[in-house]
Amino acid sequence: xxxxxxxxxxxxxxxxxxxxxxxxxxxxxxxxxxxxxxxxxxxxxxxxxxxxxxxxxxxxxxxxxxxxxxxxxxxxxxxxxxxxxxxxxxxxxxxxxxxxxxxxxxxxxxxxxxxxxxxxxxxxxxxxxxxxxxxxxxxxxxxxxxxxxxxxxxxxxxxxxxxxxxxxxxxxxxxxxxxxxxxxxxxxxxxxxxxxxx
Length: 198
Known about the structure:
Helix content is 51%, strand content 16%. It is an alpha/beta fold and 198 residues long.
């Protein structure tokens, strides 16, 4: 039987609680806390190393799919500045499962693309649980061509269960949209970095 998220995280949560208690105690009593913090940080690192080394393949998958892990949209908000989202494939519709836009990283403008997933049922349904329709792939390619014209590097943040497998997606040629993306990405003259986040 695989351990649940709560069982896997229990040692870390206990250490975090100890850390918070120590920090609050030291703050309330005006005590120097560097020594205690150093010890707790050392213990945390040792525990993480030991626990990660002993995880089974299934437990690693469970941790990778943790419900509170950051999704590509969260990473975009934390890493990049001045993000301006661009919409639509200019053929049929805008697929909310794929986001893309111009942003800055350390003052360097670039294109950021990613998969949008929801945190609750309503949000997940609005973005099709992160499964892109053909329009999402076409929007991504349209934006990559724009980045190529502007000489902007491209960062893809990938966390998807896969393309939407429905009949409507097949009717709008999802296989062709994916194949064209793969073909056309090799023709781009700008750097493309794809980061698999989940």
